[in-house]
Every structure is written in C-alpha cells, then in structure tokens.
Amino acid sequence: MDASARPSAGTTAADGTRGAEEIRLQGVSKTYADGTVGVRALDLTFAAGELTVLVGPSGCGKTTTMKMINRIIEPSTGRILLGGNDVTRVDPVQLRRRIGYVIQNVGLFPHQSVRRNVATVPRLLGWDRKRTRDRVEELLTLIGLDPATFGDRYPHQLSGGQRQRAGVARALAADPAVLLMDEPFSAVDPVVRERLQTEFLRLQDTVRKTIVFVTHDIEEAVRLGDRIAVMSEGGSVEQFAPPADLLGTPATPFVADFVGADRGLKRLAVTGIDPADLEHPPVVHVDDGLADARASMQRTGARWAVVLDDRQGLHGWISVERAAGAGTVAQACKRMEAWVPVDATLKTAFSTMLQLEAGWVAVLDGDRFLGVLTPASLHAALRRSVEGSVPEIAGAARG
C-alpha cells in the first residue's frame, strides 16, 4: 500500500477501517503488593504503523509492559496514551475490543470453527452477518488460509502454524488500531517459525498496524522490528533504537552482551545495499569480439568482465583467460549465477556469495546491471553503516 493512501493515525478510512494509533508510555511502572518491581518508570513511544519489539531475558517485564497497554495488568504509576487518550481512564472491556491480542498458544476456542473463531470480536461488537462474513473471508484469504478449505475446520484439525495464522486473523477481525503479540511464534518449530515471520512481515506491509511484539529472541526481534526496546532485569529499558543502530552501536555493556558477539553478522540482515558502495568492473557485450573484450580488461588490469546483453541486462561474465583467441564473447562467457536485487540486504548478498562460492555478486535493478559487491566492498559498506549509527538511550521521551 502506498504511504499516501494509508489512513492517518487514529482516523477512519473511507472504507470504515481504522488507521494505526500511536502509543505513549509516560512514567509507567508496576510494583506488586510484595514490593517486587515488575517495570520501572518507562517513557516510550510506539509509533503509529510501526512494529516495536520488546526483547530481553525472562523476568525483565516485557509481557508486563505489553499487558498494561490493554489493562490486563494495571499500572502502578504513570499514563498510557493510545491515540492521545489515557487508557487508564476508559472501560477496560471496551478498550480490549479496540486492541488485537495474539498469544503464544493462540487461544482459539476448540469447540468453534475457524470461521466462528475469527468472527468473535465482530459478533461482540454487534456487526451484522454480511459484514462479519465478508471480513472473515477477507482475513482468511489475507493470511493464506483458503476460506473454502479451512473456514469450517476446527482448531484441532489445523497445524501449529495454521492455528497461529488463525489467531492473527482473529486479532485483526475488528480492524483494531493496535495489535499486541506475546511470543506468538515461539511454540512452533524453526522452519514453520521462519515462514510465519515472513508471512507476518508481508501482512504488516498490507495492514500497517501499530504492533507491540514481545520475544526473548534477538534474531526474531532484528528480523521483524522497526524499533527494538532491550529490557533488563528490574524492568528498565537499556536501549530503544532501530535494529541496525542497536547492532551497530550497543548503548550499554548489557545490550552488547545480549545482542551477542556476532552482532556484526546480524547487522547484515538489516543493512540494505547502497548503490554507492558497488564496484564497477569492465563491461563487455555478448556481440563483442574476444580481442576487444580482452583489451578492455587489460586496460584496467582486471581479470574478468561483466557481460551484458543488447538491453543492458546481465548475461554472464568472462575471464581474461577465456577471452583468448578468436570469436565472440557469447561463445566464451559463462552464466552469471551470483546476483541479487538492489533492494536485498547485505546478508542476502553475503549468503549468495558463500552459497555459490563466488568472489563477488552482481546487483540488479530489475534486469539492469548496477555493479558488483565484493567481500571488501561489502565489509566497507557494513563499516560505514555502523559508523553512521547513533544509538538512542531509552528513558528519554521521544517527540
């Protein structure tokens, strides 16, 4: 969806759907009757339409923080503003109908079909049958569960991944402004988990909800989050920043330890390819003679050249050794397997390089050749990205 077409935060679109809303935590804390501090004086802003991840070790207050947003747990101090309104001053039941909630074990009603499960909140809100039916069909299709196949099945007839998708659909049914997700993918195996993460990113790109996502897995946090809050024991936030900044410049020793010594590798997954970082080897064309191709490489001291077709699309590559003799480039060049689109990450480029045992990887904009990444240029790109990071220490209110 084009950004200009999205409804603004807290507004209602022409089709009746509600846009995402900002969440602000102002001095929010939770202290239990025995004196245990669950969360300590949080000042955080979860931007409208973004996915914010709360990550940290067990017992650091991630789930407590999330549950205070929909008042399953009442805060001891502070204010929680949803779209500018203090949620502690509204009816909690009505509040929860505005907020989608997805938990680890899904919580589908076992005696109801998938279709009726997804329709739960619309029925509570008094939607008419046609509107409810249309919304359920739309969501099941959106999450990849064909309504004709899965709509009348019961939860026990679904796989773990399918149940989790149905749980997401139920949470989205009444088009909530906010979606809260408490370790939703941790109960499935790693392969299914990765698929669910991929599908969820695709779904978020479509619905653009304000999402608060709890996990203990930094890999999941980095992959999914627009911003990440790293929490430590005692309910404090050590750093609140985009994934690339978090990995590039940890604000405290705790954050550095939590994200791991391999944070540079993790950062590859959240750093895009900048065309300015590409190298530009000699370029020859399929119809060129080998003598001309060889001369082009010799002029620059290169050992190989990229081969383009008559539309400037990537065709292959040729080494100076293969350019010996007579004939055309088309007769001597080799197929190019190592390439990535320009919107890929450095991790994708590096993985392609390793998988194909290539010394470089071509970067394409559609079919158009832009340049190549080598191990040296990839490392330089990552270093520049790290040096340009400015971490944000949590606790400072954001505008």
For the structure shown, list the relevant keywords.
Rossmann fold, disordered C terminus, CBS-domain, alpha/beta, single chain, 2 domains
General description of the model:
This protein is α/β, with parallel strands linked by helices and 399 residues long. The chain folds into two domains: 3-234, Rossmann fold (3-Layer(aba) Sandwich); 275-384, Roll (CBS-domain), CATH 3.10.580. The chain is built from 16 helices and 17 strands. The protein has helices at 62-69, 92-98, 114-118, 120-124, 129-142, 147-150, 160-172, 190-207, 218-224, 243-248, 253-259, 263-268, 290-300, 329-332, 346-355, 375-387; strands spanning 23-31, 37-46, 51-55, 77-82, 85-86, 99-103, 178-182, 210-215, 227-232, 236-241, 283-285, 304-308, 314-319, 334-335, 339-341, 361-365, 368-373. The strands form four sheets. The protein has a six-stranded mixed sheet with strand order 6-7-8-3-9-10, sandwiched between helices. Strands 2-1-4-5 form a four-stranded antiparallel sheet, with helices on one face. Strand 7 (178-182), helix 8 (190-207) and strand 8 form a beta-alpha-beta unit. It is elongated and about 85 Å long. The relative contact order is 0.11.
| CATH architectural name of the largest domain | 3-Layer(aba) Sandwich
Unreliable parts? 1-17, 389-399
What is the CATH fold-level name of the largest domain? Rossmann fold
CATH class of the largest domain: Alpha Beta
The structural domain count equals 2
Largest sheet: 6 strands, mixed
User: How large is the radius of gyration?
Assistant: 26 Å
Distance between the ends: 26 Å
Biggest sheet: strand arrangement: 6-7-8-3-9-10
Structural class of the helices, strands and pairings?
alpha/beta
Strand fraction:
15-25%
> Could you say which overall geometry the principal axes of the C-alpha atoms support?
elongated
Helix-residue proportion: 25-40%
Mean pLDDT over the residues: 84
Tally of helical runs: 16
CATH level-four homologous superfamily name of the largest domain? P-loop containing nucleotide triphosphate hydrolases
Count all strands and give the number. 17
